[in-house]
């Protein structure tokens, strides 16, 4: 109850502040619309906005799933071998800095205007926190436990599966939570540079280009909502899977 | 079975160098039970780690005539996996060795029973008392049925009674399986009761001060025994040896 | 710069990016036309019509060229307030379609059944029904896919779309993007004759005297740029090394007739033509009826 | 030595592969330029590119520094109080999902076309991983150590400063490493939406629009380089400050 | 000084409920030294936590006539901060209390000296042996100069000799400062040597089986003393009491 009531209350306060600011400072509506305008847009186009949101949500989760697979694989490789780490990590860091806008032409050339290019951008944006957090987690295993596996002559694979990975899970989840947030950013960027008229990101950008600021903000609102829902789905999953982590820390 | 020739071990860090062990010559035969006593910080745990192959000696040679998996090590700290319950912590070596879990569950329960932990199989490590955690780690070492057993103060967190029970159990196991054992302890009584020979380490750098043979037949128990005198003599000798080391100036880590 | 203390500071935005078609502002700066008028102009790079209008409305910028049609549509529907047009950078609209040689499109009629890529909110999309009606084609037979401005050239080159919305001056860039293939443009001005190209916008609060000074300098730069396209391209390239001087020169060459138009003075904007534009847009149902030219322009003296 | 040699070797391999791909598959140079073209662009405009890169680097570090301050403050508030956590966290998650493209007009209105709007975007992009990682770190303190501080009747502030914060530092650094990577993304986005004509991100976008693909890739290369350098500066700092963390883990 | 009235404590988790303590009535007077013995897992650490205010009782009342800061607790596990060296771990309470660090450095060094850790001030916890870590945590508790001292098996990881030395030291401190002390131990010898009274806890749920008064004047030492007989009698009684508890069936966590 409280867990829902508090943020809603806080949100209402924020909306109130927004309302007041827009009124008091006479912010031009083409820059920031008033909350009512946004609300009326939500009411005006419920079906359209739902369809577009659903499209984005699918992109996000598909891309996120792929990013998890790739990210974990990379993290395992990096933390398993110093050579891989030293050779790959800097490249990964550099690669991650490539502006996604710059790969637009490649995207269009390879994929056209479907969902793939957007999923591709989602993956690009969100795999890195997964890699980094997982590597950090895998490396944080206490020396005690590694000594135990060594005394049992455990293979590297078993040590990973039975000790390092479980130990890394809390940090892995931090990575996932960051990644899902970035996945939404990625979906919007993908919809922006990837072309086509699907997705809530497209709605936002198109509405903004047409100075339909109210609609743009309605889209942003829905995007934020989906992002919050996805994030807390992960939080719930974490609580379910890792009770020990909360019980042994304080 | 175990052979140490002039083994020494130095730890060098940013805060200076500590010579933990120096010139250790020791041979442990198959089936032998050797206790190691010595002051805190004299290198007992380091010695076990060297035998277990967890540390490389900085000088000398360590030879153990057993594969890694035939050596079980009980650490000074319980080192339990916090996400596994008691039973599955005990079964951890079974999983690592790729043995059939099913076949060992009964054995694990039996060990937990013996250790007085029946009914706690499903508890998580953080829900146990210190002594209970230590017993879980003992069960984990025993489930391996090792040829060589390295125990680092296995009963330090246990009360006298549990200690006695487990000592009896350990003697039984040793008699049955002829496990070659190195047993680090702070209790002279325990050492005298269990060991064929007791190695006394002098501190910093850890050297072998003397090896005391306990020539008393098994099974032994303290106090109610025809060899009481011999046991008392050994105890006294060990006490004396440990006392001697007090005179030695405690060396500091060389900066 | 040391005399900049007594110069009036002015913030100017290009219409979009720093293409050759924007070179005139850099020329005016380089040639000292702004300074002559007592102005110290800071040229920033515009990111599109919507952003430019928002920047002007909020006072973040003082002057910016924006496509006239987009401007009238936006202002007439009340989405932006407080800005006005002071002059016309191009007498004739440069908006249009562009396709590549071999894609089988040479006349408006060929557009039917084709896929067109266009930036969302672009004038081409907004006016397409009007264009289609006047050109006698069925607008519903053309599929319009929104494509980010930066990806239009690539999408056309990769034949993900058959035709794109593009200013006629975009020809050299599109050809470069297509690896040298010839581009074909279908300008709107062939069908809808009265549309202006970009108009120079400013806030309604801007001092008319300042507007006049700025406009004089800017139009002087425009005159120079379209008369000396090669030099103008180089000036642009010097200021913005990302540009391609040769492409810029070609753009300016193409732009010259559009800037000059037929019979008008360079930069001139008049009520009569604006009222015709309003008529076209009202007929197309894009803006409410009854709008007056004075609501949109305040020509400089 | 090896730490530098390996990635350089790997990079050279990548460049080789790139070269071959471009040759073999006849990728049009306006989509992906060949390595030589990129190299020649670097040689052609060294001063201009250096100036623009330096501008971006300043943005990044300024924004990053601000994000660290804000992120840490938020993290402390969130982990100090359940109420703050429940009220603020969902909003933060939603806020983080707002497409930065949508806030362009607001930025320009508030800040104009200087460096501030870009710094602002950098902050927006990179504060979130700092918050999340720091909160996760602050919450991972072993129950043992918290019991110790409670037995000493330590105030919340002291418990934070002397136990939770030091314990959280390794995870905090994971957050910093993610943040610095995102800071570069943020700088480019800021330069893209914030107007003005400074920064390597502007160079990349403008060059791309002008189909000067060689120059765009040269910009990307410099961006990646700065990103790698900044990232490894943090890694070095971590090694310097947290030797205990590496020594107690394995 | 310390008063427990009908105190009980239950732990309920997803894996069932464990009653750790039940109906504990205990009064410890100012300056008294009370030892607590009992089988592993019978609730000794839980008792200390309750007195320290680290746990709330689920039944009954705990009253301690001292502020939190006047109570020092030595935990069963060393709980050292891994990023601080030995000296600064010992000085940790000083920093928490906001005392002047400078004024306590000498005291800290002195304590470390007494504990045989001279020269190790700059080492990090992971570079120490188990017993050394335990001694550091002892020094950390002692630097508080507490009115109430709660010690949870403080010597479990130490050799007999170090133990003896520290026992002497502890007696000295107690004589000088009249610190009210509760001392959990597994060593009956230690309990008899140090305590005014020895509380024997019976296991699961932990109840007070008996409180044995040790009516021997201080300072005491084992073996060389005119009160040997009395001490031996107490020891025997404690042994007997602890033995009794074996008969009790060990209860499981109620599921
Ligand atoms: N946090 C907890 N959650 C659940 N059960 C607990 C918890 N702490 C202690 N217990 C249970 O309470 C009982 C008493 O534990 P306690 O640690 O007080 O024992 P102890 O007498 O100190 O034992 P030892 O001598 O082994 O240290 C044990 O059965 C233990 O399983
Ligand atoms: N990883 C390490 N780094 C540095 N020094 C170490 C390390 N491990 C052990 N030492 C040092 O080596 C010496 C011996 O340590 P060891 O743990 O073997 O002692 P111990 O005999 O087991 O003592 P205890 O009875 O207290 O457990 C100690 O002085 C300790 O400081
Ligand atoms: Mg040891
Ligand atoms: Mg205990």
From TrEMBL, chains A, D:
Membrane-spanning intervals of the chain: 60-79, 91-113, 119-138, 172-194, 214-237
Entry-linked SUPFAM superfamilies: MetI-like (SSF161098)
Localization per record: Cell membrane
Gene Ontology CC, one term: plasma membrane
ABC transmembrane type-1 domain: residues covered: 53-234
Recorded topology in the membrane: Multi-pass membrane protein
Stored Gene3D superfamilies: MetI-like
GO BP field: transmembrane transport
Pfam family, one: BPD_transp_1
Signal peptide as annotated in the record: none
UniProt keyword annotations, A-Z: Cell membrane, Membrane, Transmembrane, Transmembrane helix, Transport
Family: Belongs to the binding-protein-dependent transport system permease family.
Name recorded for this polypeptide: NitT/TauT family transport system permease protein
Source species of the chain: Actinoplanes lutulentus
UniProtKB/TrEMBL annotation, chains B, E:
Keyword ATP-binding belongs to the record: yes
ABC transporter domain location: 2-228
Keyword set, alphabetical order: ATP-binding, Nucleotide-binding, Transport
GO MF annotation terms: ATP binding; ATP hydrolysis activity
Entry keyword annotation includes Transport: yes
Coiled coil regions, renumbered to chain: none
InterPro entries: AAA+_ATPase, ABC_transporter-like_ATP-bd, ABC_transporter-like_CS, ABC_transporter_ATP-bind, P-loop_NTPase
Name of the protein in its database record: NitT/TauT family transport system ATP-binding protein
Organism per entry: Actinoplanes lutulentus
């Amino acid at each position: 109850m409280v867990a829902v009531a508090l943020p809603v209350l806080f949100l209402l306060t924020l909306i109130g502040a927004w309302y007041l600011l827009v009124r008091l400072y006479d912010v031009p509506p083409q820059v920031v619309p008033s909350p009512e305008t946004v609300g009326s847009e939500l009411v005006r186009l419920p079906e359209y906005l739902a369809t577009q949101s659903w499209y984005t949500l699918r992109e996000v989760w598909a891309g996120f799933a792929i990013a998890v697979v790739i990210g974990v694989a990379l993290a395992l490789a990096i933390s398993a071998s110093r050579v891989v780490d030293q050779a790959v990590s800097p490249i990964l860091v550099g690669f991650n800095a490539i502006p996604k806008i710059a790969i637009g032409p490649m995207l269009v050339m390879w994929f056209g205007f479907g969902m793939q290019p957007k999923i591709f951008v989602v993956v690009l944006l969100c795999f890195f926190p997964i890699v980094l957090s997982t590597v950090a987690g895998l490396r944080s295993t206490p020396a005690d436990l590694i000594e135990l596996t060594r005394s049992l002559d455990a293979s590297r694979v078993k040590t990973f599966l039975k000790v390092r990975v479980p130990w890394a899970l809390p940090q892995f989840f931090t990575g996932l939570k960051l990644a899902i947030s970035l996945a939404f950013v990625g979906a919007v960027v993908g919809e922006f540079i990837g072309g086509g008229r699907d997705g809530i990101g497209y709605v936002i950008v198109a509405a903004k280009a047409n100075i339909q600021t109210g609609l743009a903000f309605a889209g942003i609102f829905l995007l934020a909502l989906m992002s919050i829902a996805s994030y807390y789905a992960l939080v719930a999953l974490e609580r379910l899977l890792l009770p020990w982590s909360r019980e042994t820390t304080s | 079975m175990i052979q140490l020739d002039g083994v020494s071990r130095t730890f060098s860090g940013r805060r200076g160098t500590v010579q933990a062990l120096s010139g250790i010559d020791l041979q442990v035969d198959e089936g032998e039970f050797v206790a190691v006593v010595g002051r805190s910080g004299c290198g007992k745990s380091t010695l076990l780690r060297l035998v277990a192959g967890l540390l490389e000696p900085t000088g000398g040679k360590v030879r153990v005539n057993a594969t890694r998996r035939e050596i079980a090590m009980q650490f000074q700290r319980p080192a339990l996996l916090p996400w596994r319950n008691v039973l599955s912590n005990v079964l951890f070596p079974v999983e690592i060795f790729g043995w059939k879990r099913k076949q060992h569950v009964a054995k694990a329960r039996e060990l937990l029973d013996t250790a007085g932990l029946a009914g706690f199989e499903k508890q998580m490590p953080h829900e146990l008392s210190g002594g209970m955690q230590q017993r879980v780690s003992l069960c984990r070492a025993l489930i391996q049925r090792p040829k060589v057993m390295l125990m680092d103060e296995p009963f330090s967190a246990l009360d006298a009674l549990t200690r006695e029970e487990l000592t009896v159990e350990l003697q039984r196991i040793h008699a049955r399986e002829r496990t070659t054992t190195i047993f680090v302890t702070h209790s002279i009584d325990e050492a005298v009761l269990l060991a064929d020979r007791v190695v006394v380490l002098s501190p910093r750098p850890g050297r072998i001060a003397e090896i005391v043979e306990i020539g008393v037949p098994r099974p032994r128990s303290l106090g109610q025994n025809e060899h009481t005198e011999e046991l008392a003599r050994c105890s006294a000798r060990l006490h004396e040896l440990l006392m001697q080391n007090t005179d030695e100036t405690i060396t500091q880590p060389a900066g | 710069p040391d005399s900049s203390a007594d110069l009036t500071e002015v913030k100017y935005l290009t219409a979009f990016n720093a293409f050759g078609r924007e070179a005139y502002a850099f020329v005016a700066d380089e040639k000292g036309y702004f300074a002559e008028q007592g102005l110290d102009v800071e040229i920033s790079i515009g990111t599109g019509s919507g952003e430019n209008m928002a920047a002007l409305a909020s006072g973040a910028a003082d002057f910016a060229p924006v496509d006239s049609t987009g401007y009238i549509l936006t202002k007439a529907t009340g989405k932006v307030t407080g800005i006005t047009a002071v002059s016309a950078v191009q007498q004739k609209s440069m908006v249009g379609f562009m396709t590549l040689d071999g894609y089988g499109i040479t006349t408006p009629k060929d557009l039917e059944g084709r896929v067109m890529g266009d930036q969302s909110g672009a004038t081409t999309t907004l006016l397409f029904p009007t264009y289609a009606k006047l050109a006698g084609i069925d607008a519903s037979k053309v599929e319009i896919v929104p494509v980010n401005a930066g990806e239009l050239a690539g999408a056309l080159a990769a034949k993900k779309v058959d035709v794109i919305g593009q200013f006629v001056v975009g020809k050299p860039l599109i050809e470069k993007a297509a690896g040298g293939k010839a581009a074909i443009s279908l300008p709107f001005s062939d069908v809808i004759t009265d549309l202006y190209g970009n108009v120079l916008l400013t806030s309604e609060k801007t001092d008319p005297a300042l507007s006049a000074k700025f406009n004089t300098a800017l139009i002087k730069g425009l005159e120079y740029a379209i008369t000396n396209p090669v030099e103008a391209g180089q000036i642009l390239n010097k200021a913005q090394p990302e540009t391609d001087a040769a492409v810029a020169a070609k753009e300016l060459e193409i732009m010259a007739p559009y800037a000059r138009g037929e019979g008008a003075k360079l930069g001139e904007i008049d009520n009569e033509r604006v009222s015709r534009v309003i008529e076209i847009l009202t007929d197309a149902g894009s803006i409410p009826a009854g709008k007056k030219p004075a609501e949109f322009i305040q020509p400089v003296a």
